[in-house]
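Data availability (excerpt). The following record was deposited with the supplementary files.
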Amino acid sequence: GQLTDFGRHRLMVYAPSTWKADKNCAKEPEQELVREHVYGIDGSKPGSVHLTAGGQCVYIAAKLCVIEDLLKPEQRYFEGHNADVSCLNVAPKLDLAISGQQEPPGVGSSYACVWCPSYPSRALCKL
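Predicted structure:
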């Protein structure tokens, strides 16, 4: 087996018993994954679901903050974090959100991002 990191956990991963290594197994795949939709929510963090003034739902899903239109099957994402988001708050009248994460081990501090749910493509400010 091989020791592999999954988030905060280290687990042994084993290849299927019928798998045979060949020269192609070390190549990177030619395809890339594209996110189509996020299913699920991290309900373990209090206050991690909010509504905007425009009737959209904002919630945490791992490293993402998902902005979902409840009337259409449409999602947008704030992707400014490199670790699991641990808190989220939204000021609907100002169209602002703040989300926080713990820094990866060894860096020593936490940080937060201020961003706009209407235009979540970038952080307005990193604290």
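Summary of structural features: The chain has a mean pLDDT of 86.
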